[in-house]
Design brief:
Elements (H helix, E strand, L loop, with lengths): L16 H21 L35 E2 L14 E5 L4 E3 L7 E7 L4 H17 L4 E8 L3 H11 L5 E4 L3 H5 L7 E5 L5 E6 L4 H10 L4
Parallel strand pairs: 4-5, 5-6
Antiparallel strand pairs: 1-2, 2-3, 2-6, 4-7, 7-8
Length: 219
Amino acid sequence: MSESGDPSNREPLFERPLLRAALAVILLAAVGGAALAVRWARSDGGSDSGAIDVTNAPTVVGVESPVPEAGTGALDDQAPVTGEPAPNFALKDTSGRLVTLSELRGRVVWVNFWATWCVPCKQELPAIQKLYDEKHGDGLEVVEVNWQESAQTAQDFWQSMGLSLPLVLDRSGDVFSQYKLRGLPDSFFVGRDGKIAAMYFGFLNEKRAREKLAAAGLP
């Protein structure tokens, strides 16, 4: 009798080359799909350096971005560098009014990027509101840049948090890209001369925020 008919001599099913290759393709596809579905949120931490620390940055999920409205978005190709002019942009607030960063020159400006789904963003917003109320009369302006959400979503969240901070909408994500960001929240402190005095990537507590504001000219 031929040995080929003996089950003990047959090649194990999962060791057959064609089947193993097919399983590998399926596994890679599953892993890739899962990776696209993940959105990390940074917790306590951050970086004081001019270079963005992407090791702790959340992975931004690919979404369909709206086309920027005429006159809104990045107004130059300047990268955010401490001691250099802050990248200029124009974005609309929830009422449709256009806010341009350069128009705030002469004031200390805290530009904060956030989104409603971002847990550390929610954690730091009350401290930002507190510092804004405390220092607005001394020359502090805050520009809260919402990343790719509707005006209704952002405004509803604002009301639920009891916030009155100035809020603008980066619906297309153009300004997020202009500032070379990969995660949320992130903060930029612009001095009265329009130059970036300090940056912070990640959750920013009140103590650190006061240090950054002092570096920008508001002790």
